[in-house]
Amino acid sequence: MHSFDGGGKSRFPMFGFMSRIPGGLMLIPLALGIAFGNLAPDALGIGGFTTALFRDGTLTLIAVLIVATGAQITGSRSGKAAASTTLVVLFAKTLVPITLAVTLGLTVGIDGILGVSVLALITIFGNSNGALWLAFAGQYGDERDRGAYVASAFDDGPFLALIFLGASGLGDIPIIAFVAALVPFILGLIIGAVDREWTKVLNGAAAITIPFMSFCVGTGISISNVLTGGLAGIVLGVMVVILTGGLTYLGYKFVLKRGNQSGIGFAAGTTAGNAVAVPAVVAVADPAFEPFVGAASAQAAAAVLVTAILAPLVAAFVMKAEGGLKNNVAVTGSIKTSTASD
User: Fold this and answer.
1) What would the pLDDT profile of 92-134 be if each residue is shown by its tens digit?
2) Segment (H or E) for 194
3) Where on the phi/psi map is residue 257: left (φ > 0), alpha (ψ -120 to 50), or beta?
4) What is the DSSP letter of 277?
5) Distances (CA, A) of 36 to 64, 112, 300
6) Structure pTM?
């Protein structure tokens, strides 16, 4: 097999341009998908590979991403030193917020409140941008913080949403639907456990699949949902940083006793680009959630952008205020917050 290095400079560095925009690998294709789906839907329905990839490929692309996620968990070399940090991040960033969303759903129903469904809340609050966490922890943390990336790998995808919705009774999630969603993840776990080379290969799957997956998701979102969901998504994004980032910060400060390094916890207050696809997967398992998919996907997209920008800024601000930064380099100039993969 021959490698290909590109042979020189790109005429138009599309990937570089998308990567410089927070959440760009997800947001730009999503916007293009929305445009095509609303303005030229027939162009995507001509059949063949075109329709398969750009309109009907959502679940297939998500499945590939799930396999890659599983491989990263068992392929991680974080070790025991990161175990307690991982548990704190997973508990504070994901499990507590999802439990609160489910509790709200049991109180008011799956419609949620103020145009924000329980599906949207679980989607937006229930996962985190692992790539952003790694970037921040790589600069300001240590191996314990970097190893806690496993928490993000665990909460990526639709599994926790399916588990919590099914266990709470809010959703009628058939066992076979959950098993069907779990099989690619288990395959990834096995791959990561037995073959480091495949783990390395699959590490790059997100950058490949997410732009195409996001385009497919976008084709199913109406422009009216974007307009109504945008503002709500921005507010939800801010809440993710304050609530989940704040809880992780408290876990760092009072459970892990990290002192002036505790501000790192705010970097967990993000929504992953993968979250945009979660509503569609849940609706496949339980069609009762189908009416909420468009708005929840649009709100998730807005939250991805807001948290990618705000979370590292807040984390750096808190660390600086508490004397945890070793230098005064601006976080926006040294950390890539643009990755939408995790």
Assistant:
1) 999 999 999 999 999 999 999 998 999 999 999 998 887 778 7
2) helix 175-194
3) left
4) G
5) 24, 30, 20
6) 0.76
